[in-house]
Amino acid sequence: MKVPDDKIILLVEDNADDVQLTLRSLRKNNILNEVIVARDGVEALDYLFGRGAYAERDLNCLPVVVLLDIKLPKIDGIEVLRQLRQDERTRLLPVVILTSSKEDSDLMNGYRLGANSYVRKPVDFVQFNEAIRHLGLYWLLWNEAPPLPKK
Predict the structure, then answer these.
(1) How much is the pTM?
(2) How far apart, in Å, do the first and last CA atoms of the chain sit?
(3) Residues in CB range of 33: below 8 A, 6 or more apart
(4) In what order do the strands lie in the sheet with 65-68?
């Protein structure tokens, strides 16, 4: 499933094993998009808003989807989502919460704050791989996202 190179995925995940598993699943399913990995909430926001190490980044090039874990260091995923939805530039950016959290409060808070989807990470690799395949098909090929405002 080759998709255009300009469709960047932002993976916000602090667990190195989950990062590797997600990247492996994307490659295994022939999802060859560039994946930017942010390992905490601050790094994710810096990338999206062009701050800190990403100050020179072209803000007109936003990811096509954000795969967002909830349990993150520095700033948790719920706060990242809150800040994304408060800014006009990222308000409509597709965000999929991809988490191992089984807390109903996380699920409800995610949707209240405007998550587009909430996926619990399957523990089994085969199931995880299948979940990533379906996410890739939907968000990168089938979904038609609204145009995001230019900087």
Answers:
(1) 0.90
(2) 31
(3) 3, 5, 7, 8, 9, 26, 64, 140
(4) 35-38, 9-12, 65-68, 95-99, 117-120
* pLDDT tens string 80-110: 999 999 999 999 999 999 998 888 999 999 9
pLDDT tens string 50-67 = 999 999 998 888 999 999
For the chain, the domain total comes to: 1
Could you identify the residue written with the tokens 């939907």? 138
- What six digits make up the tokens of 70? 């909830």
Residue 82's domain spans which residues? 9-141
Residue 148 falls within a domain, yes or no?
Answer: no
Cα 102 from Cα 135, distance rounded (Å):
19
Q: Which residues pair with 99 in a beta bridge?
A: 120
- Report how far residue 99's alpha carbon sits from residue 121's, in angstroms, rounded to the nearest whole number: 5
- Return the bridge partners of 95, or none: 66
SS3 of the chain: helix, strand, coil, percent, to 5: 40, 15, 45
Does 121 map to a domain? yes
- Residue with token string 């490659």: 27
